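Worked example 4.2. Below are the chains of a multi-component assembly; read each line carefully before continuing.
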Amino acid sequence: MTLERLHIDALTAILGDKGIVAQAGMEAYETGARYDRGRAAAVLRPRTTAEVSAAVAYCVRHAIPLIPQSGNTGLVSGSTPDASGNEAVLSLDRLSAGMDLDLDNRSVRVDAGMRLSELNGRLEEHGLFFPIDLGADPRIGGMVATNTGGSRFLKYGDVRRNTLGLTVVLADEQGSVLDLQNHLRKDNTGVDWKQLFIGTSGAFGIVTECVLNLEPLPRQVATALLVPASGAHVLPLLRAMEERLGAYLSAFEGMSANAVKAAFAHVPSLRNPFQGGQVPDYVILAEISRTWAPREGEQPLDAVLEATLAEIWELPAAPLADALPGPPQEIWALRHCLSEGVKHLGKLIAFDLSFRRGDIMAFCDRMRADMPAKFPGITICDFGHIGDGGVHFNLVVPKDSHLLQDETFESRLRDWVIETAVGEYDGSFSAEHAIGRRNQAFYDRYTPEKQKHMAAGLKALTSPARLGSVRFGSVEKEKTGARS
Amino acid sequence: MTLERLHIDALTAILGDKGIVAQAGMEAYETGARYDRGRAAAVLRPRTTAEVSAAVAYCVRHAIPLIPQSGNTGLVSGSTPDASGNEAVLSLDRLSAGMDLDLDNRSVRVDAGMRLSELNGRLEEHGLFFPIDLGADPRIGGMVATNTGGSRFLKYGDVRRNTLGLTVVLADEQGSVLDLQNHLRKDNTGVDWKQLFIGTSGAFGIVTECVLNLEPLPRQVATALLVPASGAHVLPLLRAMEERLGAYLSAFEGMSANAVKAAFAHVPSLRNPFQGGQVPDYVILAEISRTWAPREGEQPLDAVLEATLAEIWELPAAPLADALPGPPQEIWALRHCLSEGVKHLGKLIAFDLSFRRGDIMAFCDRMRADMPAKFPGITICDFGHIGDGGVHFNLVVPKDSHLLQDETFESRLRDWVIETAVGEYDGSFSAEHAIGRRNQAFYDRYTPEKQKHMAAGLKALTSPARLGSVRFGSVEKEKTGARS
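Applying the procedure described above to all two chains together yields the following structure tokens:
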């Protein structure tokens, strides 16, 4: 089912012929990056904030629910339509050309539909980058809507920290445009409205333009694979590195043996650097970096890393069992192949959790201890961002497991993992993927009533119409009337 | 006028004898750090979040307006009562003992009434600190409510960046407590509610507990006074330093000649390091730092600074005219004496502005050009945080100036400066002091109607009763009924 001819004609008048896809060609917009396939009433492709505003106003007045989509690389079904065929996708893929660089301010204004790779490609000649490092290549608006973190959060923080301003279109009858672009780092003249549109999955407004903080590109990098003396030594090792390397430390990524072995097994180009090919129980990828060119008289970065590791080695109760320095490209290749490797082991059930840093290993140990009795045959292939508390807690079910015959299995497993993470460890059920349809039930379960009520109020204040895949507060209160 | 006996008795039952000051002893709570003196109906001094909640619930039910006060070091009359004698101060000075340090997580939970100096004193033995560097010594809750920045924002960011969680008491009939403490760095499971209580001057809720990110203490520091080739070379100099020093760069503070001369003139202990005592037109305080102890084989930090300055010196169109390295304590002493020195020149009229970094010097030049004709005899003594766009734009009127006889003078001056900063340069009228009573008129003037309307809605959603000195949205909509 697609939109009535009447609406298609009206939206074509607003967006032009290329601004709307209503029959063939909608598949890419209807299909999630990892899960799910929905059906869109139409796909709207505005080129400017003004076109977004006009299209939104039209859709709100005619009760056409909108799903903003900006990159569609997310893993929680946040930017694809449901199966009803009633929801129109509002894609930012044509709102992607504009960019104004301010070198003095070390910031850039960019259309929200630009890809991260394109932005960083354009910034490279200026020695700058937007420092959110991800496996995927999303568009900027989607990164803002989900507040992505990535592998170098430890040094640079998340999208929230690096967003100076936004332009947002609200889903009200006017398609109101909020200009929250002042390009300032310091401004305390009221509510910092942009915070409400960061990380809320597009429910309160459609981000159309972004002003971003930029950082100098690293010009020197040194990496090593570190083997902690035991799981209990992971945090002491991190603290010892932080103490000795300060702002040099740009990544401290943990990888379980199961994940590493899966990568070696399924990606033949990876070199196994461990003695006799024996993968240790847990491995850390440590990266240090400097943003300036090598300087005469200055110790090379490899030597800095070597010297600090030697210091740590000699600590009483040394947290380090082994260290294998290696070229950054090779070492990161292993990290980037973990997902791919794990996927080949069987059916993947993925969790994006976060904890206080001290609780990560305890949680994973607890799961390793209890899993065999509760869900036999499941392999735990966790890896993640130990430096900032995020864990990609991935479970693999062998393709021939009887569990897969049980219709309740996956939801029982998800409930148990998340109840343990949130209920017992005070962790988060979504560290950096945000909510999306796949986490709606957990939002509903774990959000206190008071906050749900306030979120519903916020929704009514900003974008009272149906917008986005996530329901904040009561669905009943959102305008869901039939189309006129 | 103080509260009726009935209310005093009831609040004494909630807070204990020491929890309420109702006659003598209110002066310190009624007097602003720089401006103004109000009259309090009473001063409430709860020791716990539960006591805050109970006291707030009582006051809301009896229509007693509350002014939260946490340190009272602000400069915009944000935390003192008005002259009516109707407002009760809710001070956090007794909610100041609790602190739970999590070394693995590099974070601390602290009662909101703790002083910054006490917190950092307690953290020092662990090699950590809360990295917001200020001239004053506020309490943490007030820092959160105003989102203070300070002199090392360039490296560490503001309070917002370093706040992981809050507990907030809302001004509703229940004195609702929002527990927003999950101690996590990564969490995208809905609205990040704490953002609404940061920088909004206590209007939406009373911050009672804070979870803060901590940073390793610097163990090596090098500083220099730099003389840019001209005002137009200040930003190129900053960019050259950022490119060559990256995360080492921890301060880049600008000081005008007038401010520096005033400090030398009024603080005899300061050493004037400039050749022949000739203060240049503009001076930069540059600081670089490392968080680790000096290491064998590593170039000392003084040598790093010297080498980078030598590189910058040899650039074509070198932005640097002179550089005077010196001991950090001596160099910071000059920076910290600027306020004191400027105050002695006459009547001080202070502005806390911020700009895109490239606009600061242009704005100051514009003011220097136009001031003599518009407001003759006024001295501009600006200094500030060039690295992050903040400027303390201080004007001094000689005590014998005829301008001071003119009742409209100060408001005409303020209107002109702020209209130029905000209207022409798209800057902020409050970089880091937040709003307070003194900026209310500018909030009303420069906030778009849509945002004012949304702020009023937010106020109704969170703390519908009278709370704090700032009016977000319509005063009419706030409950202001007479006491029962």
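Take a moment to check your reading of the output against the notes. The radius of gyration of chain A is 24 Å. The CA atoms of residues 101 and 108 of chain A lie 4 Å apart.
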